[in-house]
Each structure stands twice: as C-alpha cells, then as structure tokens.
Amino acid sequence: MAHHPPHIYLDDTWYIVTAATLYTRRYLSASRAKALVIDKLSELVTSYAVTLRAWVILDNHYHVLFKSRLGEDLPRFFGQLHGATSRQINLWDEAAGRQVWHNYWDTCIRSEEDFWIRFNYIHNNPIKHGYVKRLEDWPYSSYHHWLATKGSDWLDDCWARYPVIDFLEGDDLDLTGVREQESRL
C-alpha cells in the first residue's frame, strides 16, 4: 500500500519540507547529484516566486524551509524537482524509469520560534546524521550563505536563542514502514 502523507496547502505560508529517496537509498551520495538538486531547487524557487530561507541536501534526503506564495503550487513544485532530478540521476546510473523519490512531508510553521528552530535543525542535519563534526565542513546547505551574509556571531546567537533540543526528537526520518515494504521485495 502506498503511503501518501496528508498535505495542507496554504497561501503565503512558511513550510518545512522533507523529502526522502525511496527506501532511503543513497541516490544523492555523489557530489554531482547533490549539486543537481541544488541547481533545480534554485531554478524552481525563481520560477515559482518562492522565498527560500534554509536548505540542506544529504545522501538520502533533503530539507527546505520556504514560504510559498500559492499553496496549491507545492505539488507541482516538488513534482518538477523530483521528476527532473530522478531523470538525470537515472541517466547517470543507467537505470531508466527507476523511482528515486519516496514522497515529501510538509509542515506549516506555527510561530517565529518554530521557524528558527527549524532553521537551526536544517543546518545542523549533517552533524545529526554523522556526515561532519562542524557545519562549515558540509558544502551542501544554506549555512554558508548565512555565514557569509550575517556572520558567525549572528548564527551563534540564532542557535543560542532557538536551540534544537535532541534534534526534534521523533523527527528523524523514520521510514520503518517503507523499510518493511523493501524487505518483502
């Protein structure tokens, strides 16, 4: 049975979106795959007039924090992002037609505090998943943009004011049902 998380589409609303690869396979492990997602995301942000505030790309999932102008655009936005990146990754891997993405999960941001906690969560994701020990060492996130434009004092203050307690316990990409499906294949 397919798992389709419920989506709430609201206009002029901040969202955090997480998307995982099918069975959390590491389809994005190559630098060029992460760069592809970043490039396509940037292109779509411009064409859909989305305000993007934070993002991170890991080997098997990504997170974005953005404001949508029209909530009804979300399915098209992520459909185009996932379609274009799937086609190119499959071309590189010589695996035409293979499903790369599982789905995406969106959550509306509830408050200013929630926004900044999610902002910090996104930037700290490479540490959470053990990719790096220092944020500066992960090139596939918006952390470097904020470091260059606002500086380390601003980022440190943001972290001090809005700490991520246990990396939002329970928000750790639990795809147990998906893994159970995979084991039956």
What's the short story on this structure?
The protein has helices spanning 31-47, 74-93, 112-128, 143-149, 152-161, 176-184, and strands spanning 13-21, 51-57, 61-68, 101-108. It is α+β, with helices and mostly antiparallel strands.
Describe the overall structure.
- The chain has 185 residues and is an alpha+beta fold.
- The chain has one domain: Transposase IS200-like (Alpha-Beta Plaits, 2-Layer Sandwich), CATH 3.30.70.
- The chain is built from six helices and four strands, in the order E-H-E-E-H-E-H-H-H-H.
- The chain has helices spanning 31-47, 74-93, 112-128, 143-149, 152-161, 176-184, and strands spanning 13-21, 51-57, 61-68, 101-108.
- Strands 2-3-1-4 form a four-stranded antiparallel beta sheet, with helices on both faces.
- A hairpin with a 3-residue loop joins strand 2 and strand 3 (61-68).
- It is globular.
Question: What is the terminal-to-terminal distance?
Answer: 13 Å
CATH class: Alpha Beta
Give the strand content: 15-25%
Cα radius of gyration in angstroms: 16 Å
Count structural domains: 1
Order of helices and strands: EHEEHEHHHH
Low-confidence spans:
173-185
Q: Helical residue percent?
A: 40-55%
**What's the architecture, going by CATH?**
2-Layer Sandwich
> What is the 3D form?
globular
Structural class by secondary-structure content: alpha+beta
Figure out the total of helices: 6
Largest sheet: 4 strands, antiparallel
CATH fold description: Alpha-Beta Plaits
Rounded mean pLDDT score: 89
**Total beta strand runs:** 4
Strand order of the largest sheet: 2-3-1-4
**The CATH homology group name:** Transposase IS200-like
